[in-house]
Amino acid sequence: MFYMNNINMPVDSPALNHKPGSGGEATIVMTIITQYMQRIQSIREATKAIRSSPGVREILEYILVFGNYLNCSTRTLATAPAYGFKLQTLDLITETKSSVDRSRSLLHYLVDVIMTKEKPGGNHSGPSKSEILATALAIRPLLISNRSQHQLTGSNSDASVLENIKMPFDFDRLLQTIERATSVSLETCVAEVAEIEKGMELCRNELQLRNQGGLATSPATKTIQQFIQQKGPEVSGLKEELRKTQQQYNECVEYFGENPKMLESSNQLFGTFVRFLKNFKQCQLDNLMAQRKSIEEELRQQILAKQQQRMMQQQQQQQQNGNGSQSDHQMQQGQTTSDNQKVKEKRLLKQDEVYNGALEDILSGLKNEPFRRADAVRRSQRRRLANMATNEMQDNV
């Protein structure tokens, strides 16, 4: 009876739905069988999503090509290129760091190549600068708010930022599907179904003992019989669902070249892909921010170049204006000097150009030649004649 009470006991769902118009909050209740069925179905959906995902197939091809290229130097002529790799390689590529920048891994370069070649819509030209800046500007407020929250609370959560990053292919939907499956484990589901089947078998044995003991008409016997009739098909359906899920999981593990016995826990397979997809998304964010910084630096250099060019043009214009004003000033000075010289020459003429009248001529003549009386010639002649006569008389004596 304890088993019957447990299997019929309602279990609160982790999700709460609000019915419109009910005016209150209605909690969805389910039996343990329904809850176990949902767990098994989540594992089955995740297994199917991983195996049928075109993005997973594409990314594994990229990794294989990269691995063969990196190992070509160590491969000899006797060894052929690799045709596959283990799933643990998905964790190793995040640990393969660049020799130039230790903050960048092989996954960063892989994401860069994929995002450049596999742009949505069939365009393989990669995101443009405007698209990179638009996406970077969209997540920039989230980065600032997270940085402020980290300064206040000491926590650094990039969940809100990563939610705005859209991965290529079907990775976003695939990540959500796998994350739901990682909350449960296939081994746990097997143990739970085995426990339910064991309890149902105990109920059947108890019903058989009651019928053999003459208690077939008792109310307890009728309750057990009714319970087996109602829950027996549900337990059988749960068991069948688990069997199909185990089969699909093993086929998925073999599809990726792994041994099902080595990956009996579904968390090993799903955890590997969850870590890879989250690292892929983080590398995509890192590349986006690096591209944004590169574009901003390029724009800053262009702005500085334009500013320097504008300053040089202004300096040349000022220099030209300065030379023009200087030449005008020199011309004005030369004109002023010429005018002053002309004025000075007009005021002070040369001596030979000055004519002040007859009086000035007389005075200048007196300076050059002494003044003579009008009879000065006769007197000099008489004196000369007297002197000549005196000389003759002396000679006669």
Automatic annotation (TrEMBL):
Coiled-coil blocks: 278-305
One Pfam entry name: FH2
Disordered: region residues: 306-342
DAD domain sequence ranges: 352-386
Gene Ontology biological-process entries: cell migration; cortical actin cytoskeleton organization; regulation of cell shape
Ranges of compositional bias, category Low complexity: 307-327
Compositionally biased spans, kind Polar residues: 328-340
Molecular-function GO term, any one: actin filament binding
Record domain FH2: where: 1-306
UniProt key word Coiled coil: yes
Gene Ontology annotations for the cellular component aspect, listed alphabetically: cytosol
Keyword Coiled coil belongs to the record: yes
Highest taxon of source: Eukaryota
Keywords: Coiled coil
Family: Belongs to the formin homology family.
Protein name per Swiss-Prot or TrEMBL: FH2 domain-containing protein
Organism name: Euroglyphus maynei (Mayne's house dust mite)
Record lineage: Eukaryota, Metazoa, Ecdysozoa, Arthropoda, Chelicerata
